[in-house]
């Protein structure tokens, strides 16, 4: 899905443009929110490959004369044609962004950032000459999924923004930062698709019209309850605060949990489901501005914090991502929280301007 969206973005940027009231307009592809969504494993692989390509691209832009670095990049590209394709895409999008950044910025304003930003050390002056183009490329690569979400979503939030949405039946959806949903009420069904991010649902009881939430392969069915659904960090999670829910893998047509009760949490990753327990009061801690990690992988904490940072966060070190942390992290200070997460394991936070953060 990630590569397909990048391709769609590239096509839209390359397409013939037309003017409306003197403003440059470029056609964008259309999407159906209630069509099939991608396999999580393939989407994660594409995202990881994109991040690796971006990392090579940034490092070579910073040191174009480094023969050893370039040889390493070429070896990485030669190892897999998909690697080479990802790197070529980064180069092409950068070239396009250099031409289109002003008009793109005018059409798609930066989302409001409500969380305070902690300044990071300024990079050495020798890197400044490439920062503008590289950041534009990174933003265009990162923006590809966001552009398609604008076509699919009925409601969405930007970086650092949360939102409460009351649906037609009185059900409440509390949307976390960087989240998108599509809503379809028809006949005897109430359907919500979680396209990205996470949301807390407080469902108005109606036994004649079950409430369904789809998130990737998961389908959660309830008549009236309160629960949180999260798509991120390579897995899907359902946590119940009140009532009960049933969870299925709708693609594989198999039941994952006939009944989750308050304090139950289901994690689903690569076709495997695991149910454990937690304190119901901790459900959707993001609503209190917190990430509560209890022996949680670094990659999962980073995924939650990255929703509150503008631009792109790249976790470069897979081994670091598998390390585990315990603590309470402040979503209002995401960059400080990132440093707090990495510090016990010797990780580093590198800022390439305000829009790109690389974690090593």
From TrEMBL:
Pfam families, alphabetized: DUF4880 (PF16220), FecR (PF04773)
Keyword Nucleus: no
Residue span(s) of domain FecR protein: 154-246
Keywords on record: Membrane, Transmembrane, Transmembrane helix
One Gene Ontology molecular-function label: sigma factor antagonist activity
TM annotation in the entry: 129-149
FecR N-terminal domain sequence ranges: 51-93
Protein's recorded name: FecR family protein
Organism per entry: Pseudomonas putida (Arthrobacter siderocapsulatus)
